Amino acid sequence: MNDPLERFKAAVAERYVIERELGRGGMATVLLAQDLKHHRPVAVKILRPELAAALGPDRFLREIEIAAHLTHPHILPLHDSGEAAGSLYYVMPYVAGESLRNRLLREELLPLDEAVRIAVEVADALGYAHGQGFVHRDIKPENILLVEQHAVVADFGIARAVSAAGGARVTSTGISVGTPGYMSPEQASGEQELDGRSDIFSLGCVLHEMLTGRLPLGRAEERGGTKSSLQAGRPTMPVALQQVLCRALAAAPTDRFGSAHEFGAALAQARKSGAAHGPRRPRQRALLGVAAVLVAAAGWWAWARRGPPAIAATEALNPTHVAVLYFDDLSDHRTLGPVANGLTEDLIDRLGQVQALHVTSANGARPFRDRAVPLDSIARQLKVGTVVAGSVTGSRARLRVAVRLIDAESGQQLQSQTFQRPRADLLGLRDSVAEKIASFLRERLGQSIQLRAQRASTNSVAAWELYQRAQALWEDARTLMQAGDVRAGADAVWAADSLLARAQVIDQRWILPIIARGWYTLTQARLTLMARPAGASVSPTRPVRAFADWVARGMGFAEQALAHKPGDPQALALRGTLRYELWRNAPLAAPDTLAAAERDLRAAVVSDPAVARAWYALAEMYYSTGRFTEAEQSARRALDADAYLSDAAAVIADLYFAMLLRERFDEAHDWCQQGIQRFPRDPNFVDCELRILGWSAKGEHQIATAWRLLTSAETIDSGGPTTVPWLDRRLMVAAVVARTGLADSARAVLLRARRGAQDDSLAAQIADEEAYVRLLLGERDEALRLLTGYLRWRPQSRESIGQSPWFRPLRSDSRFRALVGLEP
Q1: 553-580: b or e for each residue (b if 16 or more CB lie within 10 Å)?
Q2: Which position among 35, 113, 124, 138 bears the catalytic label?
Q3: Angle at alpha carbon of residue 798, lines to 793 and 804, rounded to 5°
Q4: Which of 105, 641, 101 is closest to 361 using CA atoms?
Q5: Is 330 exposed, middle or buried (0-12, 13-18, 19+ CB in 10 A)?
Q6: Is the pLDDT score of 160 beyond 80?
Q7: At what angle do helices 260-273 and 196-212 cross, to 10 degrees?
Q8: CA dihedral for 438, 443, 446, 448, sign (positive or negative)
Q9: Beta strand pairing status for 386-394 and 398-407?
Q10: Is-contact 747 777, C-beta < 8 A?
Q11: Cα(706)–Cα(745) distance, integer angstroms
């Protein structure tokens, strides 16, 4: 029995049945096991062999025994520890919840109240442990578990035990106690005698990440820009909370809070002193809100969304599946971020053209930028066996780029190279990096890795840098708008456009800035449709002229790009999407607009099937025109082209709605669950289960379920009776009641919802849903009246209404057939 794990299993077999591996961290492998004596699942953590060899087992186990005496509701207890088959191990409860890291990977930003509550609970745990003489030394999202909405700190005392038992010998193994990015300045500098203020700093880093989606700027010892990074990342944050967090992140321990209890109390007080709520997100499928509009337009910019669930830890990782992680900006004042991002994305583009490789898109890699996520977690999340990492440093005159090729399975660095070039030769440096990584991959895989020329590139360093700076501003705009600061977001978008305009002047034949400006105008167009004040009447005279003007401007950019490069798939995707949006939102659009949009989008995907944005637009178009089978096929192709595309939530929603419209409710349920898992706060999925019931309910027992689902949805989206979702959910409950045959009760739910809605325009926006309920109640004339008004406002919906199974009973009615354009 040569396998160390098998020997360990055999050694502990009388006490624990090892079931499977859960994951690997910097110091230990985690196994799921069954405790035979107490009949409960547990997590068994086995120290890495090189670490165990460097430690003194007796003292390590004594320190673990001391840590086992910690008892606190927000500390995960230690059950057991020992030595078996030469391996040191310790045992903790198995928690079926998720880690804060997994939550952040899925959602990126947490609601302000929730982030502060988690930090307060962790601070309470730290305060207790510090009073018992324990400093955690490794506070990070991976070590904070979320159990029934409460925080529980794991691995308490382990870092102390390792440090105390191993001393300098631990350092010689190359294993550091603590995680870069979360270490206090004193811990990062190698000090051994740390006090509780080091943990306060680490918790401050975690809170900063929960609130802004990224770690504080700069190295631990020079984070003077914390306040500005907070303002940019979460501009709606109360000033009092900013001040508390800045104090926790002070470089000098004497400038931080004196205790974790004091930090927690200050956080609780700051939460009371100002509004601490994220922006309310109106939820209408066609117009989901400012943040959603920006994300939709940014599909071409490749903004990140959360990836699929991590695969099982025991599944082999394929070395031909490659992730290029965003290069770190190590310049003195962090001024090379746009350059580092541009080098990363250009390398992803070059490698992505190699047929022998399966390269994670920029969308997939971006959630891990500026985050200290363990390599094995990244590898399993992205399902890759090879990782490329790098860093950029230098000055205005000269750049230094270091790149590394890493085996994702073992974490071993396979190859590395450093380049130094004058900044004027930045593009030559970029090409050298790509060629070197290709040679590394050839050696690793034993296959031919031939790079093609950089697609749609420029020879101008100045234009390239302006483009990268514009992209960084565009991402800032997204963050600002998601945080509710639309004005500041709009300013950032304008600034981005001005940089693109300068890049376009410098290199007039480079089409990427031109196409980017086209997507920007689509964002502006969509925002004009959302400018209608609450309570304004809904009618065909809504402000579409400004929308059409912006679309015309975007079309101009698309035509410019196609004039320089006829048939370019990205430019065709832009023009096709603009034409589709014009058809969908401007009733007076030319009759052939929709056909022209489809021609452009089909040409884009024929030219390059990897243009996920074009597949997504086709899915939306087919959905809107009642071609539900083709909508499903196009949505699936969009996910195949890029599982991490920025519109992934909307694509999954398209698949969910396509299954509903084809009355394949089991498959609709599957897509609903995938949406909830990946995007739990996305408006498309907050009440997707309730909607399935509204389409398919058959028994009275489902009425209580419908009300329960409504209540659950409104704990996440509590917009109230001034929003479409509030009325929409109640119409779905009325549909459930009507489908069970309780007509009077359903009618009462419907009328109560109509009276409760505080904006007269809400009912008009979803009059098709009320028509569905009326039809279930046998009120055909009222259903037709509602549909007539709805289609007067949205004539583009005639085909989808005509094909909807909701209105199948009306298809024999000549009035309905005339209304939706069906043949007599």
Answers
A1: bbbebbebbbeebeebbbbbbbbbbbbb
A2: 138
A3: 120
A4: 641
A5: middle
A6: no
A7: 30
A8: positive
A9: antiparallel
A10: yes
A11: 14
What pTM value is reported for the model? 0.61
CB 775 within 8 A of CB 769: no
- In this prediction, residue 587 carries a pLDDT of 67
**Residue 711: alpha-carbon gap to chain centroid:** 25
**Of 535, 548, 603, nearest in space to 762 by CA:** 535
Question: What span, in angstroms and rounded, lies between the C-alpha atoms of 211 and 244?
Answer: 13
288, pLDDT greater than 50: no
What tokens were used for 553?
């401007």
**Contact at 8 Å (CB) between 304 and 367?**
yes
CA distance 71 to 78: 9
- Cβ of 312: how many Cβ atoms within 10 Å? 11
Neighbours of 35 (CB within 10 A): 18
State residue 483's pLDDT score.
Answer: 64
Known catalytic residue at 138: yes
Contact residues for 664 (Cβ-Cβ < 8 A; gap 6+): none
Q: Are 8 and 87 in contact (CB under 8 A)?
A: yes
What's the whole-number average pLDDT of the chain? 83
356-390 per-position pLDDT tens digit: 888 998 888 888 887 777 788 888 888 899 999 99
Among 443-452, 516-525, 600-609, which is the least confidently predicted range?
A: 443-452
Lowest mean pLDDT among 36-45, 74-83, 717-726: 717-726
**Residues 579, 599: contact at Cβ < 8 Å?**
no
Please state the rounded mean pLDDT for residues 102-123: 87
Instruction: Note the pLDDT of residue 516.
Output: 94
Q: Kindly report, residue by residue over 65-84, the tens digit of the pLDDT.
A: 877 888 888 999 888 988 99
Q: What is the rounded CA–CA span in Å between residue 440 and residue 95?
A: 40
Residue-range domains of the chain with CATH: 4-93 (3.30.200.20), 98-273 (1.10.510.10), 321-457 (3.40.50.10610)
Where are the extended beta strands (E) located within 85-211? 87-93, 98-99, 144-147, 150-153
SS3 assignment for 583-636: HHHCCCCCCCHHHHHHHHHHHHHHHCCCCHHHHHHHHHHHHHCCCHHHHHHHHH
End-to-end CA distance of the chain: 78
Q: Closest Cα partner for 340 from 488, 228, 468, 462?
A: 468
Is 367 in contact with 101 (CB distance < 8 Å)?
no
Beta bridge partners of 30: 23, 45
> Is 600 in contact with 573 (CB distance < 8 Å)?
yes
Give the tens place of pLDDT for each residue, 453-465: 666 678 999 999 9
